[in-house]
Amino acid sequence: LSVSALLSEGNCFPEWDGLICWPRGSVGKTLAVPCPPYVYDFNHKGVAFRHCSLNGTWDFVHSLNRTWANYSECLHSLQPEISSRKFFDRLCVMYTVGYSISFTSLAVAIFIIGYFRRLHCTRNYIHMHLFVSFMLRAVSIFIKDKVVHAHLGIKELDSLLANDLRSIAIAPSVDKSRYVGCKIAVVTFIYFLATNYYWILVEGLYLHSLIFVAFFSDSKYLWGFTLIGWGFPAVFVVAWAVARAIVADARCWELSAGEIKWIYQAPILAAIGLNFILFLNTVRVLATKIWETHAVGCDTRKQYRKLAKSTLVLVLVFGVHYIVFVCLPHTFTGLAWEIRMHCELFFNSFQGFFVSIIYCYCNGEVSLE
């Protein structure tokens, strides 16, 4: 049919809005389309709505220069607390403070280790790589939050909701070029997140090798550790970005997209699991050596305190808290879910600070210098 014929029939044109490919709409009627199944966080049993106006065009908000749609049912499956801005504001303040403190303490630690020549060795080089990965993770989170929130128009949406438009959720712009910057920010965040997990794994591998390999040439394997920490995450993050661009190129890529997320989540979970195994084996060896050196008449409680202290240090170094939060169910609601979020983000954001204390500020060699 010609354009004039379509307009005479009062039909709204089919249109892709970045999340849904809307079919042709009838004049004066509301069109219902199932929520996109590739957006993992959506309620896939719900529907999204658009209204075809009397003049044969989709409802349009001129103040924002965007077409509007109702995605409220799609968002219904998210945690009930998703609507509580105060709760998420508190979380944002907490992890912003945590990552800021971690960034500052790590920067000072890098300067100290780099300044004193006698601290230059393979072990401290690995520590410095780990410090940098924590710092880049913090910076990428700050950039991602700022860029993604700016593109999604959070402030604009809040002002509209205040004007009784509570049943409407904004539809993404058709122009994908405006999302290039925030997509890069999201990909960069995922890459530095992955490198941070893998440098924690490298620390675990290094410590494990020192304990179990009698003649371990650490300088010989430094390049291999560097490749694991910075190179391997780049492979699966690039693969995820390509798959996302082809299969689910919607908005800023900040929403999960079905099974695609496992391209980068599976290697990260594998690193967390392997590190936990290394942690258990290292604690086992430490406990064995402590009991082997246990002399007759020695205070047993002192041995327990020594083991507990060593284990606590290893928990922070190996990032054991990650395996705890991975194993916790994601079906928490209400207070249990809030406690889980506070604990997880607290340990994630302050871990860099704790690691800098262990590897630098409380290190005997550093104190001697």
UniProtKB/TrEMBL annotation:
Keywords: Cell membrane, G-protein coupled receptor, Glycoprotein, Membrane, Receptor, Transducer, Transmembrane, Transmembrane helix. It is found in: Cell membrane. The chain crosses the membrane at residues 93-113, 221-242, 311-333. Residues 12-78, 91-363 form the G-protein coupled receptors family 2 profile domain. SMART domains: HormR (SM00008). Its main location: membrane. It is a multi-pass membrane protein. It holds the Pfam family 7tm_2. One of its GO terms (biological process) is adenylate cyclase-modulating G protein-coupled receptor signaling pathway. One of its GO terms (cellular component) is plasma membrane. It comes from the Eukaryota. PROSITE patterns: G_PROTEIN_RECEP_F2_1 (PS00649), G_PROTEIN_RECEP_F2_2 (PS00650), G_PROTEIN_RECEP_F2_3 (PS50227), G_PROTEIN_RECEP_F2_4 (PS50261). GO terms for molecular function: G protein-coupled peptide receptor activity; parathyroid hormone receptor activity; peptide hormone binding. SUPFAM superfamilies: Hormone receptor domain (SSF111418). Belongs to the G-protein coupled receptor 2 family. This is PTH2R protein.
